[in-house]
Design goal:
The protein contains 13 helices and 8 strands. The longest helix is centred in the last third of the chain and has 18 residues, at about 240-255. Strands 3-2-4-1-5-6-7-8 form an 8-stranded mixed beta sheet, with helices on both faces. With about 350 residues, it is an alpha/beta fold.
C-alpha cells in the first residue's frame, strides 16, 4: 500500500494544529477554559452553546451536542472539567465519523465492488484518505481523481497540492484541464503543472470537456501515469448544463475504465462558512462525491464549519489545506482535529 498521506504522524498533527489555531484561540479554546474555571450550571451550558453556534457548527448540531452532553454529565455524574471536556471531544469526534456507508481502505479492494448509487452511477463514498492512497499502488492505473467545486474555492491549488504529494512519493501524475468554460482555467492549470513538474492535457477554450477527458485518459495510459487528476468547470449559473457536462465526463471515463472515476473530490472553501455550504449543496446534486478537500482552513475559517459540512452534506472530509504552499495539506483526522480545537488557550 502506498503510504502517500501517512508521511509523518507528528508533522501532520502539527500542521492540523496550526491550521485550526485561529479557531481555537477565538472560539473553541474558550470552551476548555470555561470548563476549567466555572461550575457546570445552565449559564455554562448556554455559553458553550453560543460558542459552538458562533463558530459555524450550526444551530441544530450545537443544540444536539449540548443536549447530549447535559444528559451524559447527569447520568455519569461528570463533575470534573477533564471529564466533561473528554465527553465533548468524544461527541465531536463521533459527529465527524464516516457516514453510514463507509468503504474499506484495504489496498487490494476494488472500487468495482463498492456500493453504487442508482440515481448517480459512480464511485461510492470514501471513508478515509487511506482509500485514496491504497488505490494508487499501481493495481489501478491510471487512478482517476475527478475534482469538482464552484469557482473560487481553491480547487486549482488543491489539485496542485494533491499532484505534489503524489509526485513526492514517486508516482507519475497527469493533470486534465476539463474546465474549458473559463479561458484562463487551462492556463492556470498549466502553470501549476510546470511548478509541480507534471504534464497537463488541455484543449482550446470552449472545447468539449468529454473530449479532454478522453485524451487525458489515453495520454495517462500511453505515458504510464499512475494518477490522473481531472479538473472540471465550477459555474453554477448554468446548473443544468453543468450537470450534463459532469455526467458526460463520467460516461467518457467509464468507457475507458468501468471503475473510473475512482474518486470524486469536492473542494470547499472553509472561509466562506455556511454561505459556501449552501453553494455546495446545489453543486452536490450534480455529482456523487466520495470526499471533500477543505481548502483554506488556515485562514479566517471558523473551525465549526467542519461539523456542519459532515452533518449537512454527509460526505467525509478527506484532506484539509493547512497553508499556501504546495506541501501545505494534511489528511483529515477527526481525533487530531478535535484535540487541536479544544486545547486550552493561555
Amino acid at each position: 500500500m502506498l503510504r502517500l498521506f501517512r508521511r509523518n504522524r507528528d508533522e501532520e498533527k502539527k500542521a492540523t494544529e496550526q491550521a485550526v489555531k485561529p479557531s481555537r484561540e477565538r472560539w473553541f479554546g474558550r470552551i476548555a477554559n470555561l470548563l476549567r474555571s466555572s461550575r457546570l450550571d445552565d449559564s455554562v451550558w448556554d455559553e458553550i452553546e453560543e460558542i459552538l453556534i458562533s463558530s459555524d457548527v450550526g444551530v441544530e448540531t450545537s443544540l444536539r451536542i449540548i443536549d447530549r452532553l447535559k444528559q451524559q454529565a447527569r447520568q455519569e455524574r461528570l463533575d470534573s472539567p477533564e471529564a466533561v471536556t473528554e465527553a465533548l471531544k468524544q461527541a465531536l469526534t463521533e459527529d465527524l465519523a464516516p457516514g453510514p456507508h463507509p468503504v474499506s481502505a484495504h489496498a487490494g479492494q476494488s472500487l468495482a465492488h463498492a456500493r453504487q448509487s442508482p440515481a448517480h452511477p459512480g464511485p461510492a463514498p470514501s471513508a478515509h484518505p487511506e482509500l485514496v492512497e491504497g488505490r494508487t499502488d499501481g493495481s489501478t492505473r491510471p487512478y482517476v481523481i475527478l475534482m469538482v467545486g464552484v469557482n473560487g474555492v481553491g480547487k486549482t491549488t488543491s489539485i496542485g497540492k494533491l499532484a505534489h504529494h503524489f509526485t513526492q512519493s514517486g508516482r507519475k501524475v497527469i493533470l486534465g484541464a476539463g474546465d474549458t468554460f473559463r479561458a484562463a482555467a487551462a492556463e492556470q492549470l498549466e502553470i501549476l503543472g510546470q511548478r509541480v513538474g507534471v504534464d497537463v492535457i488541455r484543449h482550446t477554450a470552449g472545447a468539449d470537456p468529454g473530449a479532454v477527458a478522453y485524451d487525458a485518459y489515453q495520454a495517462s495510459k500511453s505515458r504510464g501515469a499512475d494518477v490522473l487528476i481531472f479538473d472540471t468547470a465550477g459555474r453554477l449559473h448554468t446548473k443544468s448544463n453543468l450537470m450534463e457536462e459532469l455526467r458526460k465526463i463520467h460516461r467518457v471515463l467509464k468507457r475507458q475504465d468501468p471503475t473510473a472515476p475512482h474518486e470524486v473530490i469536492l473542494t470547499l472553501d472553509a472561509t466562506t462558512g455556511h454561505n459556501g455550504l449552501a453553494q455546495a449543496k446545489s453543486f452536490r446534486e450534480a455529482v456523487d462525491c466520495t470526499g471533500i478537500f477543505l481548502a483554506k482552513l488556515d485562514g479566517t475559517a471558523r473551525g465549526g464549519i467542519v461539523l456542519a459540512i459532515k452533518q449537512e452534506l454527509e460526505v467525509p472530509i478527506l484532506f484539509i489545506g493547512t497553508g499556501e504552499g504546495m506541501a501545505d495539506m494534511a489528511p483529515f483526522d477527526a481525533d487530531d482535529f478535535v484535540d487541536a480545537l479544544l486545547e486550552p488557550v493561555s
